[in-house]
Design goal:
This protein is an alpha/beta fold. It is 43% helix and 12% strand.
Length: 255
């Protein structure tokens, strides 16, 4: 959630500037967007990228409606004192909050030389469960240590969430066939700390930067065996077995 102060700044930035030319790229340097759904590791990725002294990566600056999303992003980019500026956006923030077509939005950014980083999570079950835990603790960023509590989950509700997540993935894939982009997959690129530096270096190179050491204070909210974290795991497993989502019950990527 954004604070009232941040919302005030965003409203101020959203105002059209007198004499502003909306068709030109504002400022110099490299621009990028992290495009993907929530609970895919976007906060982790942002923290890794911000470890580089040349990068300023904002969060979900389009979570609330603005008059002109592209112009808003450009004005915020113009305030950056670092040569590389980026931000995160979810497909449903574009369709719902901004009431704009994601393909048209990305095309406008491409015209302004923005580079696209596509972030996705393959295990739909872990994806949906991560969201359940975030809602239960009323926080989407986990910096806690020690044991986490278990949670009882409604299997049918979870299936509905996975179906919506899959629909978003299908639409994202269709949109991105039109755009050059770099893909980051949560399981192979972010899940294990040993992959953080190589993943960041690959993106730094994509952004025209050299390597820089990266780190984060974020931790996984749902790690280890699901049977240890889901109080009614047997009921959940029974509901998923035989469905298209049953394959996600056992995923070697998560150990």
């Amino acid at each position: 959630m954004f604070s009232s102060a941040k919302k005030g700044i965003r409203r101020w930035l959203a105002r059209p500037s007198p004499g502003h030319d909306e068709d030109r790229t504002v400022g110099a340097g490299t621009r990028f967007v992290i495009f993907g759904q929530g609970r895919t590791g976007s906060s982790l990725l942002r923290s890794l990228l911000n470890s580089h002294p040349a990068v300023r990566c904002e969060g979900e600056i389009l979570a609330d409606p603005v008059e002109d999303p592209v112009a808003f992003v450009e004005r915020l980019a113009a305030t950056s004192t670092k040569p590389v500026f980026g931000f995160k956006v979810k497909i449903y923030q574009l369709t719902d909050a901004q009431q704009t077509d994601p393909r048209a939005f990305l095309d406008e950014l491409r015209k302004r030389s923005y580079r696209i980083v596509y972030l996705r999570r393959n295990n739909l079950l872990r994806h949906a469960i991560s969201n359940e835990f975030a809602e239960a603790r009323s926080s989407y960023h986990d910096r806690s240590e020690g044991p986490r509590p278990s949670l009882t989950i409604d299997p049918q509700k979870l299936i509905g969430v996975m179906q919506r997540r899959r629909a978003h993935l299908d639409r994202e894939a269709a949109i991105l066939t039109d755009f050059e982009h770099v893909m980051v997959e949560y399981e192979s690129d972010l899940l294990h700390p040993g992959r953080h530096q190589p993943t960041a270096d690959r993106l730094f190179a994509y952004l025209g930067l050299g390597s820089a050491p990266v780190g984060t204070d974020l931790s996984r909210s749902v790690s280890g065996s699901l049977a240890d974290r889901i109080a009614n795991y047997d009921d959940l497993a029974a509901a998923l077995t035989g469905t298209e989502f049953g394959v996600f019950l056992s995923d070697p990527a998560y150990g």
